Amino acid sequence: MPAESVRPTAGPTGFVCTCLRITERELLGTLSHPGIRTLRDLRRSIGAGDGCTACHPVLQRYLDGRAQPSCPPICSAR
């Protein structure tokens, strides 16, 4: 299975951000909002990643997994 298809998961504590005790459920709820696209957006909205920053790679994988193109692809066939 390719690494990019592996779903990120919360750590053994159940938190995706241990410092601020942000759970995967809280993170997924926040990621459902269209304005959340970057780590900065996450930090501003729920504080995830605003402590020691060790969770940044995990948070980024969640963000990457939720990434949607900003506009639909353009069909060049006419």
Structural class: mainly alpha
Low-confidence stretches: 1-6
Overall body shape: globular
Strand order of the largest sheet: 1-2
Please explain how this structure is put together:
The protein has 78 residues and is mainly alpha-helical. The chain contains three helices and two strands, in the order ββααα. It has helices spanning 24-31, 39-45, 56-66, and strands spanning 15-17, 22-23. β1 and β2 (22-23) form a beta hairpin. The relative contact order is 0.19. Residues 1-6 have low confidence and may be disordered.
Summary of the model, kept short:
The protein is mostly helical and 78 residues long.
Tag the structure with descriptive keywords:
78 residues; mainly alpha; globular
SSE arrangement:
Layout lengths: L14 E3 L4 E2 H8 L7 H7 L10 H11 L12
